[in-house]
Specification:
Arc Repressor Mutant, subunit A, 314 residues, D-Maltodextrin-Binding Protein, domain 2, 24% strand, alpha/beta
């Protein structure tokens, strides 16, 4: 095939795919910096070459025909394969640059991610960050995120998970609260205290406190008169002003902003929860994403060692 002709056809196929994705020649044109007429002519050339109709057109919209849908699926897969190969070939030597879209939970975002991003930005100033700090689930395809940090390992086989850390937990309160209400010595004593509950937004159910009693793992459900939802930091903040006991990650409780918190029930610690970086399984990592994944993995490991030291846990 003549190379110039091949280039034209590949360009037309990319235009066709954009029109199929948007279901609109006008929207496709806007995203590509073309005119709607140019998009229409490009699609018409493909239809003429294939001798099939790819779109059913009306005055208000365009809709893929059955043949068009089949052609779109195959073309989209081929373009993705080409893009993946280019990422593999250029990813190791390219300087990280461009926009990185990240989704992270509120707690981990504020106390783990942000300090590491600031140093990463100093090293790679050409990277532009768009960070969504919330506890909402995301759709990588529809919302265009490059990676996310999440609690636990996703069950979705379409996602790759790389563990960042197993974040250790402890029960904390202020000295003022303990002076007023006494210090619990056993798990049973917790029923006599103001224990603060966090309600997970994804399930609407309180998150149980988890302990290790000797060699036995214990999940400790309880009823509370104080519940917070949406953001764990609300629970921590309430505990930090003497509102009660709260089980939280050591990396939160040992942060200088919560210096009034002290640990109780240290003999029952030993459990943790995992945080992972996740990204789509079929996506080869670009230079910017690969650099950030490696940076966060090593950076969080160093932060976790500091947390263990501050918490007196080795």
């Amino acid at each position: 095939m003549d190379s110039d002709l091949a280039t034209v056809q590949i360009g037309s196929i990319q235009i066709f795919c954009k029109a199929a994705e948007f279901g609109s020649f006008t929207a496709a044109a806007a995203s590509l910096g073309l005119t709607p007429a140019a998009v229409s002519r490009s699609v018409a050339r493909i239809e003429e070459r294939l001798r099939v109709q790819l779109f059913a057109r009306s005055t208000r919209q365009v809709r893929l025909t059955d043949n068009g849908r089949l052609y779109f699926e195959q073309c989209r897969e081929a373009i993705e394969q080409l893009e993946n190969v280019e990422r593999v070939l250029t990813g190791n030597r390219a300087t990280p640059s461009g926009t990185l879209r990240i989704s992270v939970p509120t707690t981990y975002g504020n106390l783990r991610l942000l300090p590491l991003l600031e140093k990463f930005k100093q090293k790679y100033p050409q990277v532009i960050f768009e960070v969504n700090i919330s506890n909402r689930n995301i759709d990588f395809v529809d919302q265009g995120y490059d990676l996310a940090i999440r609690l636990g390992t996703p069950q979705d086989s379409r996602l790759v998970a790389r563990r960042l850390e197993d974040a250790s937990l402890g029960v904390y309160a202020t000295r003022a609260y303990l002076a007023r209400c006494g210090e619990p010595q056993t798990l049973a004593d917790l029923h006599q205290h103001d224990c603060i509950q966090f309600v997970r937004p994804s399930t609407g159910r309180p998150m149980p406190w988890i302990f290790r009693d000797g060699n036995t793992d214990v999940d400790f459900p309880f009823e509370s008169t104080v519940r917070f939802s949406g953001d764990v930091l609300g629970c921590v903040g309430y505990a930090a002003i003497g509102g009660g006991l709260f089980q939280t990650y050591d990396f939160i409780a040992t942060n200088p902003r919560y210096q009034d918190l002290v640990e109780v029930l240290p003999d029952y610690r030993g459990r943790s929860r995992s945080f992972c970086i996740i990204y789509p399984h079929n996506r080869h990592l670009s230079a910017k994403v690969r650099a950030l994944v490696d940076w966060l993995t090593s950076g969080v490991d160093a932060l976790a060692q500091n947390t263990r030291h501050r918490a007196g846990v080795m």
